[in-house]
Amino acid sequence: MRKNIVAGNWKMNTTLPEGLALAKEVNDAVMACRPNCDVIICVPFTHLASIDHVIDSTKLGLGAENCADHKSGAYTGEVSAAMVASTGAKYVILGHSERRQYYGEVSAILRDKVALALENGLTPIFCIGEVLEEREAGKQNEVVKSQLVEGLFNLSKDEFAKIIIAYEPVWAIGTGKTATADQAEEIHAFIRSAIAEKYGKEIAENTSILYGGSCKPSNAAELFAKPNVDGGLIGGASLKCEDFMGIVKAF
Q1: For residues 22 and 24, what is the distance between their CA atoms, to the nearest angstrom?
Q2: Half-sphere exposure of 200 (CA within 13 A, CB side)
Q3: What is the SS3 assignment for the chain?
Q4: Residue 105 in contact with residue 78, Cβ under 8 Å?
Q5: 20 to 30 A Cα–Cα from 93, which one of 8, 35, 39, 102?
Q6: pLDDT attached to residue 145
Q7: Across the strands, what pairs with 43?
Q8: Which residues are within 8 A (CB) of 114 and not within 5 positions of it... i.e. 6 or more apart?
Q9: At residue 87, what are phi and psi to the nearest 5 degrees?
């Protein structure tokens, strides 16, 4: 059975003291409500080791927002998958639309990042999704399939089984626009069918596919009720415990 998952992506927000306070608040809320899904927070590199010490990792997962595409070496400012894993983190977001758009992360780079994450015991939350022009041209299926093929379909069955997919309609991130629950279900079902085509029905049925486009407490229950939407990758709403837990409680 695939897991329902709500993962927060803090992006470049919170100082270390602010981040520690938020992580403790989320941890306490998760402990109090015993959610019907896995809950993960993905936080800035600077926060990882400190937050690992203040949360119960059996109840609240910890992840990074990125990692480098090299093992180690003369790459000033980069943080390797091994470094991330050494902090206690278990997850890493890879291929987020902001990384693709602002930092030129192409599929060849992402393949290396995925391989290094898996090698170091991290679970990749791999992001795919189309921009507004692609959606308006009706190319969303073509775009997400090519991102899957180029970024992940080099993996073996066993390797792919460790991946979490996050579908993010790029046109709905931070814009206040949200794909309707039916639009989300339609593309999530297409993604699952593309995975089934490559790896077989069993792997596809066990792959968690999260929705990552302006999900909030007011629309989470409708989105999560769809059979192929297995949770959310939450941006802005993950920075307020009440909002984040409102989404968690949608399960």
Answers
A1: 5
A2: 7
A3: CCCCEEEEECCCCCCHHHHHHHHHHHHHHHHHHCCCCEEEEEECHHHHHHHHCCCCCCCCEEEECCCCCCCCCCCCCCCCHHHHHHCCCCEEEECCHHHHHHHCCCHHHHHHHHHHHHHCCCEEEEEECCCHHHHHCCCHHHHHHHHHHHHCCCCCHHHHCCCEEEECCHHHCCCCCCCCHHHHHHHHHHHHHHHHHHHCHHHHHHCCEEECCCCCHHHHHHHHCCCCCCEEEECHHHHCHHHHHHHHCCC
A4: no
A5: 35
A6: 98
A7: 64
A8: 94, 124, 126, 151, 152, 155, 163
A9: -85, -10
What is the reported pTM?
0.97
Residue linked to tokens 């990882």: 48
Torsion sign over Cα 162, 92, 248, 229: negative
pLDDT in tens, 23-52: 999 999 999 999 999 999 999 999 999 999
Which sequence positions are flagged as catalytic? 96, 168
The C-alpha atoms of residue 88 and residue 69 are separated, in whole angstroms, by 20
Residues 6+ apart with CB under 8 A from 225: 181
Task: Tell me the residue type at 45.
Answer: F
Cβ partners under 8 Å of residue 116, min gap 6: 67, 68, 69, 70, 71, 80, 81, 82
